[in-house]
Specification:
Strand content: 15-25%
Distance between the termini: 54 Å
Radius of gyration: 23 Å
Shape: elongated
Strand order of the largest sheet: 5-6-4-3-7
Number of domains: 2
């Protein structure tokens, strides 16, 4: 797979796949992977593929244009190609989401992907630019928690962030990362609306414990 492929561009900030689909002579419709879940993308691909097949049948049955007349058949062929391209891009988005989930969840069993990870046990949750920093009791728990949380984010993402399936904290556009403090995790976003959601839901989801007095 080429290094420029979207499958290879993974970082701690979970990437978004955006693809352009020709939708007319001058405009371009953008399809984003996060517009819907992988299953919905595949259904759209099937629908667009069926539309392309229908257009092909109509074009095959149409008579040849009169000399100097408008070639409606050529327009139908362009419409057929638009449907085919739309189907290809939806398939690409579905594959991207599925591949992303498999990568983020490679260390976890398929049955555990849907489980809502615990944010904790933590001793404190502080606001930081873009979201929160959760400080855990034990630094050893942090890498495990990050793996679980990123996996569930990918699981929710591939299902279109369906609230009936995912945990409340896992919404579009969040980043889950190790803080400078080895005992802490940061959950942040680029926009303030999502940052406020992270702060509210993060505290609701956090499992707090008291530190033993020394």
């Amino acid at each position: 797979m080429p290094s420029g492929s979207p499958w290879m561009r993974y970082g701690s900030f979970l990437p978004a796949l955006t693809v352009g689909v020709l939708s007319g002579c001058a405009d371009r419709q953008l399809i984003r992977a996060d517009d819907m879940g992988a299953t919905q993308h595949r259904l759209e691909a099937q629908r667009e593929g069926a539309a392309a097949t229908t257009q092909t049948s109509v074009s095959s049955a149409a008579p040849a244009p009169a000399p100097g007349g408008y070639d409606w058949n050529a327009e139908r062929q362009r419409e057929t190609e638009r449907h085919r391209e739309h189907a290809r891009q939806h398939e690409a988005a579905a594959e991207f989401l599925e591949h992303f989930e498999n990568r983020e969840c490679r260390d976890l069993t398929p049955s555990s992907r849907a489980a809502c990870p615990l944010l904790g046990p933590v001793v404190r949750v502080d606001d930081v630019p873009g979201g929160i920093r959760a400080t855990f009791v034990d630094a050893k728990r942090v890498p495990v928690a990050i793996t679980e949380m990123r996996c569930h984010y990918a699981y929710a993402r591939s299902r279109g962030f369906d609230e009936a399936i995912g945990c409340p904290l896992y919404v579009r556009g969040i980043e889950i990362r190790q803080a400078i403090d080895p005992k802490a995790i940061e959950i942040v976003a680029h926009d303030e609306k999502t940052a406020r959601l992270i702060r509210a839901r993060g505290r609701q989801q956090a499992v707090f414990v008291r530190q033993a007095a020394r």
